[in-house]
Amino acid sequence: MKVGILGGGQLGLMLARAARELGVEPLIHDPKPDAVAGQVARHLAVDWTDHDAQDALAACDVVTYEFENVPISIVESLAARVPVHPSPAALAISGDRVSEKNLFRELGIETAPFAVVNTRADLDRAVAEIQLPAILKTRRFGYDGKGQAVLRRETDLEEAWAQLGGHPLILEGLIPFEREVSVIAARSSDGSICHWPVTENAHVDGMLHISRAPAADFSPALFESASKALESIMAKLDYVGVLVVEFFQLGETLIANEMACRVHNSGHWTIEGSATSQFENHLRAVSGLPLGKTERAGYSLMINLVGQIPDLDVFAADPDIHVHVYGKSAAPGRKLGHVTVLADSREALEARTHRVLEVVGKRA
Fold first, then answer.
1. pTM for this entry
2. Architecture in CATH for domain 113-173
3. Which residues lie below 8 Å from residue 343, measured CB to CB, with a gap of 6+?
4. Which helix or strand (DSSP H or E) is residue 129 part of?
5. pLDDT tens by residue, 47-91
6. Contact 12/292 with Cβ under 8 angstroms?
């Protein structure tokens, strides 16, 4: 079996590795010649519109993608020739923050208040409606804190508009949440669904820093609510693959922030911390293979390595600390790898994590 993967970043790298472990041949398409997934798979380093690349992908058994910024026209063209999972419709919705929130509301999933902003006058009207504090975001292409500005007072509007104006925007009310959690699940074409434990996320400068699983003190009722929300999205979109929804938690209330129609940074801990990783189950789902089990006794934590890679050889012999380096060149704000920490108790997990953070630092 052959699987085409659109995008060759670290997610594509880990998908390609998981594919090989399943006996599936991966084919990467990414215009960047240094795309890291090319380390482990055939890499088509040509423009998205290249006809030969399209033909090579159409010859695969299935095509999937590792990020939302693949041109939707390319995905739709491929879907006319070869199964593409998740569907182009799912990609289009998840790549637009307004479409995403409209879907949430259609399904009865609570969101922050929001308004569409296309002009400076729209921004004034949106602020009057939603009130400050609020956050102004690009509808597309924003990630890791990019493409957004927090508005706390009226004087912030001009600078934010100077920074972001000219792009389709969305204004969202700023939620005073207690924590952010990720709910991660996979769905097969036959409707089978598996869930991983809820993951708690901590960010630095808008970028994910640490994910802990399972999230502490997450009630069964809250898990049922979150799971039903994911399953309603999957049913609506006839979804196949891994889906992640990030929620803001306020007590026993969950407010949907955004979704990712792909494997996700907050699920990297599943490589060592789950019986089946998000990468393997995504491939199982899109390839029509049975989903693997997601249980694991114990606790897991993932730390992103950003900007530069410190000397982590001190952990080489520790069976409960796993270092992943993606092979990217160092650059400020760039995700270069991650470390996964495992333990049998929360106390042991935090003690081991403290050791790692002494080497990694709060933000490398």
1. 0.95
2. 2-Layer Sandwich (3.30)
3. 298, 299, 320, 349, 351, 352
4. helix 120-130
5. 999 999 999 999 999 999 998 889 999 999 999 999 999 999 999
6. no
Report residue 248: phi and psi, to 5°: -90, 135
Looking at domain 2-84, its CATH architecture is 3-Layer(aba) Sandwich (3.40)
Given 1.10.10.10, 3.40.630.30, 3.30.470.20, 3.40.109.10, which CATH number is that of 179-360? 3.30.470.20
Extents of the domains making up the chain = 2-84, 113-173, 179-360
The C-alpha atoms of residue 261 and residue 358 are separated, in whole angstroms, by 34
Distances (CA, A) of 27 to 72, 104, 230, 279, 322: 19, 33, 29, 15, 27
Q: What is the pLDDT of residues 184-233, one digit of tens each?
A: 999 999 999 999 999 999 999 889 999 999 999 999 999 999 999 999 99
d(Cα 282, Cα 276) in Å, to the nearest integer? Answer: 10
Beta bridge partners of 27: 4, 42
Q: Which amino acid is at 49?
A: T
Burial 52-88 (b: 16+ CB within 10 A, else e): ebbebbeebebbbbbbbebeeebbebbbeebbbbbbb
What average pLDDT does the chain have? 95
**């306020």: which residue's tokens?**
250
Residue entry with tokens 């209330």: 253
Structure tokens at 77: 């063209």
Q: DSSP labels for 255-308?
A: EEEEEESS--GGGTTHHHHSSS-HHHHHHHHHHTPPPPP---SSEEEEEEEESS
How confident is the model at residue 166, as a pLDDT?
87
Supply the pLDDT for residue 145.
Answer: 66
- Encoded tokens for 188: 């097969």
Q: Which neighbouring-strand residues pair with 305?
A: 337
CA 181, CA 224: separation in Å to the nearest integer?
Answer: 14
The SS3 call for residue 205 is: coil
- Given a contact cutoff of 8 angstroms between Cβ atoms, the answer to whether 342 and 269 are in contact is no
